[in-house]
Amino acid sequence: MNGPEDEALAHAAVDALIGQLALAPKPGLPDPRDLTARATRRDHRALRWSARALLPGLTAMAAAARRTGEPSARLRAELGAIGRSTEHTVGLAGGGHRGALWTLGLLVAAAALQPGTAPAETTTLARHIAAHPDRHAPRRPSRGSTVSARYGAAGARGEARAGFPHVRRALNTLTTARTQGAAEPQARLDALLTVMSTLQDTELLYRAGPMGLRHVQAAARGVLEAGGTATGPGALALRALDTDLVSRAWSPRGSAPLLAGALFLDALGARDSVDVRLRRGARPDPTHPHPKLSP
């Protein structure tokens, strides 16, 4: 049976995904500027709608982890079955979000196993879950796994089995950018670019090959080295990167789910901080950039 905390984790994850979708300008990725999908071929309104279809599945994943109580092969199999059912539901709602379901599903399950832990512990638990094979998964290879095998890229599975290093890097960038005075959208864009600068994105490898991937990685690093999106030179470099990717029809789709994962863990940390302050008798800060996530 699903509990209120399971539902709260699922809502936090979907809110993080929708927060990622709302961010603009995201180079080569769907954002609110592209409502009719002329540039990225993905209708932004449809993606926001279908993101909500993840809620029941993510809630069930959290409940499964809470019942199981450990990152076992049994839990991995149950998460796989829930994930396949959720993919079907999301497809009926408009599709998309397969990578987000993989990333957020593992992180939600890990957060349910040990509530209130730091992001590093949560990603470690997710790594332990992902280490188990899903014995009931379809035998046909996915495009991502085929590209991973061809180029030796880690892919989504490798990212999870490594403990989501790019999620952790994005979190570090969020903290640093905020400390340096960046507005929240700019901090999140810098976090996205941090992921893009080093991720072996299988979608880019498929569309653009290794040379194209290195081109995008270098351009993302260039934005950060120019000072980040909160600076004039960084903002200009971001616009140039966006124009370049749209003109080439290249989309760094692997980076977006990892940013959503970072925003999810960031929101959980904000909630835990609020809860600690409330237990100490302090009032919540209404100017805090994250919502309080409660059942």
From TrEMBL:
User: Sorted alphabetically, which InterPro entries does this protein's record hold?
Assistant: CitG
Some GO term, biological process aspect, for this entry: which one? Answer: prosthetic group biosynthetic process
Pfam families given in the database record: CitG
Q: Which UniProt keywords apply?
A: ATP-binding, Glycosyltransferase, Nucleotide-binding, Transferase
Q: Please provide, alphabetically and separated by semicolons, the GO molecular function terms listed in this UniProt record.
A: ATP binding; glycosyltransferase activity; triphosphoribosyl-dephospho-CoA synthase activity
Q: Per its UniProt entry, what is the enzyme's top EC class, as one word?
A: transferase
Q: Give the superkingdom in one word.
A: Bacteria
Q: What is its EC number?
A: 2.4.2.52
Q: Which reaction does it catalyse?
A: 3'-dephospho-CoA + ATP = 2'-(5''-triphospho-alpha-D-ribosyl)-3'-dephospho-CoA + adenine
Question: Do you know which PANTHER family this protein is assigned to?
Answer: 2-(5''-TRIPHOSPHORIBOSYL)-3'-DEPHOSPHOCOENZYME-A SYNTHASE, TRIPHOSPHORIBOSYL-DEPHOSPHO-COA SYNTHASE
Name of the protein: triphosphoribosyl-dephospho-CoA synthase
Q: Which organism is it from?
A: Streptomyces chartreusis NRRL 3882
Chain's gene name: citG
